[in-house]
């Protein structure tokens, strides 16, 4: 075997090792929809759905039994002609917002996003109020005789 | 107009503020741990949206020896029913069975075998005892998805009219039953 051939074999081997990483998780081709457009849409929806068993993987990436079942459900709904929002709503009504890998924009999440700006505004506002109050305050009254005596005692040495 | 002594008390109050904050955080943390111990709070629980909703539509194959059931059956109950998803392949379910057997005289329990072979589920119930008065077989796991379960065992308390009142995704313990479940059953029973 020449060096070229060895190199080529090595390259082919490496390519084969890399392939499974490129293919999304559907581990059984019979799961896939015949229509490539619908299959692509089902994969896009599935990539946004959390696998409730592994919790940090999407159902497209997970090989858990429940993830496989949910992939099938997604494909059934897509094949029926439902749009992405309808499939997502079906999932959220059963598993709650937790199933979304990308949380929806709601009052709670909006507040979360706005928190740094809000905290800064509150801080600047409070500092400004304090500053104005201090500037407006009259100078402290002169020391009383008693206080003068105490100060003298304290600073004697 | 503030006097020096006013300033002093204010400074003391401000110094007490972090202490008070730590106190409040401590009490909240203690309450959280207490809830975790008694089963009223579970941080691992996926927030199931089925709570306080009527039971979802689902279909089950019958699983001898008990009668099967449908969503309509659950909507017609007049006393609370505990619905338990179990499987013969699930070790926590096996561990949970003695607890369910103890509960069976106090509460009507309906079981759903999740992704299990009917013969395996039946033999599981023969060996561990059968606490269920009704039994269904969810071989494909589709009923489980309708209920929003992510594994077994999962347990739901269904109140009169088929409204889901409580849910847990962990095996039931005696502590949970006495501190959370039975008081709730009592409340649901007497509207």
Give a short summary of the structure:
The complex is a heterodimer of chains A (157) and B (191). Chain A is built from 6 helices and no strands.
Secondary structure topology:
The complex is a heterodimer of chains A (157) and B (191).
Chain A (H helix, E strand, L loop, with lengths): L2 H20 L13 H11 L18 H15 L4 H12 L11 H30 L8 H10 L3
Chain B lengths: L3 H35 L22 E2 L8 H5 L5 E6 L4 H13 L4 E7 L3 H11 L5 E5 L3 H6 L6 E6 L3 E6 L5 H16 L2
Counting H and I runs of at least 4 residues, what is the number of helices of chain B? 6
Assign an overall shape of chain B: elongated
Name the structural class of chain B.
alpha/beta
Give helix % range of chain B.
40-55%
Major sheet description of chain A: none
Describe the 3D structure.
Chain A has 157 residues and is mainly alpha-helical. Chain A folds into 2 domains: 3-99, Helicase, Ruva Protein, domain 3; 107-154. Chain A is built from 6 helices and no strands. Chain B folds into 2 domains: 1-38; 61-189, Glutaredoxin. Chain B has helices spanning 4-38, 71-75, 91-103, 118-128, 142-147, 174-189; strands at 61-62, 81-86, 108-114, 134-138, 154-159, 163-168. The N and C termini of chain B lie far apart (58 Å). At the A-B interface, helix 3 and helix 4 of A face helix 5 of B. Chain A: Residues 138-157 are annotated as: Disordered. Chain A: Residues 145-157 have a biased composition (Basic and acidic residues).
Q: What features would you highlight for this structure?
A:
heterodimer, A: 157 residues, mainly alpha, Helicase, Ruva Protein, domain 3, 2 domains, 6 helices, 62% helix, elongated, B: 191 residues, alpha/beta, Glutaredoxin, six-stranded mixed β-sheet, 6 strands
